[in-house]
Write a structure and sequence with these properties.
The structure holds three protein chains of three kinds.
Chain A: E1 2-9, H1 14-27, E2 31-36, E3 46-54, E4 69-72, H2 77-80, E5 92-96, H3 101-108, E6 113-117, H4 119-127, H5 133-144, H6 153-160, H7 164-177, E7 179-180
Parallel strand pairs in A: 1-4, 4-5, 5-6
Antiparallel strand pairs in A: 1-3, 2-3, 6-7
Chain B: E1 36-40, H1 50-54, E2 60-62, E3 68-70, H2 80-84, E4 90-94
Chain C: E1 3-8, H1 9-19, E2 24-27, H2 35-45, E3 52-55, H3 59-71, E4 76-80, H4 82-87, H5 92-97, E5 103-108, H6 122-125, E6 133-136, H7 140-155, E7 163-168, E8 176-181, H8 184-190, H9 214-246, E9 253-256, E10 263-267, H10 271-284, E11 289-294, E12 296-298, H11 302-308, E13 314-319, H12 330-339, E14 347-352, H13 362-374, E15 385-386
Parallel strand pairs in C: 2-3, 2-4, 4-5, 5-7, 6-7, 10-11, 10-13, 13-14, 14-15
Antiparallel strand pairs in C: 1-8, 6-12, 9-11
Helix pairs in contact in C: 1-2, 1-7, 7-9, 10-13
Classes of the chains: A alpha/beta, B alpha+beta, C alpha/beta.
Chain lengths: 181, 96, 392
């Protein structure tokens, strides 16, 4: 079973990200959970959201303490929140930032795989807004290999309707442009 | 006074306590409660209907000539009709 | 054809209600069940079902409106949590006394003081004696199944009682997970149209919800009590039918790896599933432990409980609510009452766990099982322990 924690700010779509990923996995016939860090959050406040993905039924319903993967939607959170807390040593950290994976390794002291992508720029280009949730989903899929790229298509189209294509474009660019170390 | 019949056993209690003969308050004649009875002077009655509106028992209604009269089966003799009748057409008279 | 969908459980609950074609939905939003009435209002606005969605100004009005609607023969639904349920409080025993089959989904949330929007069972435990059928779901699938079953059970001519389906707030309401949805035809075949016993109608005058003098009140209560006790037979029938149609089995108490167990944990709601993972691990370590998942809270399954604990040594009862100043947590008190007088009852330990959304983990259950095993030799000092509370 894979456990993923997302860090974002309220209003950046972290909850939508976990929903899309969960639905993509479920669409592939897998089992998945997607849930927010339960609580009243307001726009801009640091929030977390979670996924579990497995090939068999997932019964654990507690919080996630030792994720395998952490995704950070907003670069400013890296210095604000301990984004690597509990992250498994051989896990994966995916961050939306202009910095390189090597720079982030120095900053976080994380020993596992680090991936970075300038999702904010991609989102501005493709979506016209700096909302990076779907973009980062692309980076996550490339690095984490959790679901097939194609599996997010249906959930995204269902959720975003008219603007689904733009989100898919942003997602694909991040998939291509993410750097791994 | 109307006879009350309670269900003998819990099995006889209507489902949800439903009452299938609503409006059965009319079976309960409260006229025997009163000490005084309202008497109408038709020469003073202007048929305004105020007594009908104020009667807490709702037992005043218009007769064939349009005068408002109390149904003595129910009238409890509270005297509110007499109190409200501003032309003074109603007087409370002792029973018995 | 059953469809496998990834959906937020609260939305799924609303979709399940829609499949049952309610006539009236009257609800007021409260975290964490808000998505249930909200999504239903979308469904009604989109014309997917022909229902009257009444945006009431409070939960008290919500249940009152459902009560009135049901009295006219409408299939009525509402949803709430926590203080909202308390606000419905004075109408709760009236709906059951009037024998109206209103269905309610409760996103279980802690009762305030301090204000808390997270999951525990204190809200439903405060309504224990209100004469409603009360069922607990452990995951999204059970929520959907139970909502659909709810209407059939409640409206059965031998039941005619309101029913609440309990799902843990946030822990279930806000989770996206895979759910198998029956299609409209399957639900239509399972759930017939509501045929009320009697309705308020100008053509056939009757009164409902009238006064009950001391001379008949005891008989009225006995009648309601018997109806609730006897509803278990219909619940079992409906669950049997559901298993035949959809292959998913429901029982008042579902055992997990109970064979030969010395220690059994008893849980309700979504912590059931986390507890199962703990039992798996304990069994791997050759610890003789198992789990009882209590699904039917009212009418309380006395016989099933007695049978389930016949040959065990210790029963560890998990309460997700505390009865301040009481002799035990609400569920444990019920269990002790059911087992009193039984020959060779197990030692019983009571843990109050997960209040106000405090996380309940696999490790917690393992610790509890290990501590409970001691109870056979050493009686616990207190009647119940609030597990994990900081400070001695």
């Amino acid at each position: 079973m894979l456990e993923i924690r997302w860090h974002g700010r309220g209003g950046q779509g972290a909850v939508t990200s976990v929903e899309m990923l969960a639905q993509a996995a479920i669409g592939e016939g897998k089992y998945a959970q997607g849930f927010p860090s339960f609580g009243p959050e307001r726009k801009g406040a640091p929030v977390a959201a979670f996924n579990r993905v497995d090939d068999k039924q997932i019964k654990v319903r507690s919080h996630i303490y030792n994720p395998d993967v952490v995704v950070v939607l907003d670069a400013s959170l890296v210095s604000l929140v301990n984004v690597t807390e509990g992250l498994k040593e051989d896990g994966i950290l995916v961050v939306n930032t202009t910095k390189s994976p090597e720079e982030l390794r120095k900053e976080t002291n994380f020993k596992g795989t680090i991936a970075t992508v300038d999702a904010k720029r991609i989102a501005w280009d493709e979506l016209g807004v700096p909302i990076t949730n779907t973009t980062m989903l692309g980076a996550l899929i490339k690095v984490g290999k959790i679901v097939e790229l194609d599996s997010v298509r249906d959930p995204l189209e269902h959720r975003f309707g008219r603007i689904a294509q733009k989100n898919i474009a942003a997602l694909k660019r991040a998939y291509e442009e993410v750097r791994v170390n | 006074m109307a006879n009350k019949k309670w269900p003998e056993t819990w099995q006889e209690f209507n489902l949800g306590g439903m009452v299938f003969s609503p409006g059965n308050a009319s079976e309960y004649h409260t006229g025997s409660w009163r000490d005084q009875r309202p008497v109408l002077d038709t020469s003073k009655c202007i048929k305004c209907g105020l007594c009908y509106i104020f009667c807490p028992e709702g037992c005043i209604s218009q007769d064939a000539d349009g005068y408002f009269v109390s149904d003595l089966d129910y009238c409890k003799g509270c005297g509110i009709c007499a109190h409200e009748c501003w032309p003074g057409a109603i007087t409370m008279v002792e029973e018995g | 054809m059953t469809k496998r969908v990834g959906m937020e459980i609260a939305f799924a609950a609303a979709e399940a209600v829609a499949l049952c074609k309610p006539d009236v939905v009257a609800a007021y939003p409260i975290t964490p069940n808000t998505h249930i009435p909200e999504h239903l209002s979308d469904i009604v606005a989109d014309g997917r079902i022909d229902a009257e969605f009444i945006c009431v100004e409070s939960e008290h009005s919500a249940l009152s409106a459902c009560c009135g609607a049901s009295a006219t023969g409408a299939r009525a639904f509402t949803a709430t949590s926590s203080q909202g349920l308390l606000f419905m409080g004075e109408v709760m025993p009236i709906v059951s006394a009037m024998r109206l089959p209103v269905v309610m989904a409760i996103g279980n949330r802690a009762l305030s003081g301090p204000i808390n929007i997270w999951n525990d069972h204190s809200d439903i435990m405060s309504q224990r004696d209100m004469g409603w059928i009360s069922i607990f779901a452990s995951n999204g699938q059970e929520v959907v199944d139970m909502v659909i079953q709810a209407f059939k059970i409640a409206e059965h001519r031998e039941v005619l009682l309101p029913l609440n389906v309990n799902l843990d707030g946030f822990q279930l309401t806000h989770v996206v997970e895979p759910i198998l949805f029956p299609d409209q035809e399957e639900v239509d075949r399972f759930l017939p149209e509501y045929e009320p016993y009697a309705t308020l109608h100008p053509d056939k005058v009757l009164s409902m919800g009238t006064l009950g003098m001391p001379e008949i009140f005891n008989e009225a209560m006995k009648a309601k009590d018997v109806a609730l006790i006897n509803s278990k037979r219909v619940i079992m029938e409906v669950w049997e039918e559901w298993e035949k149609l959809f292959g998913r089995k429901y029982e008042p108490i579902q055992g997990y790896k109970t064979e030969g167990a010395d220690v059994l944990l008893l849980t309700m709601g979504s912590m059931d599933e986390t507890a199962e993972v703990a039992i798996d691990e304990l069994r791997e370590r050759k610890v003789s432990a198992g789990l009882l998942r209590l699904k039917l809270w009212r009418p309380f399954p006395i016989e099933e409980l007695r049978n389930a604990v016949k040959s065990i040594k210790v029963l560890a009862v998990m309460d997700r609510a505390v009865s301040c100043g009481g002799a035990a947590g609400p569920v444990c008190a019920e269990i002790k009452a059911a087992l009193y007088g039984e020959p060779n009852p197990p030692a019983i330990v009571n843990y109050v766990i997960g209040l106000g959304g405090r996380d309940v983990t696999v490790d917690d259950f393992i610790t509890i099982a290990e501590k409970a095993a001691q109870a056979e030799k050493e009686k616990p000092k207190e009647a119940y322990e609030i597990y994990g509370v900081r400070g001695s």
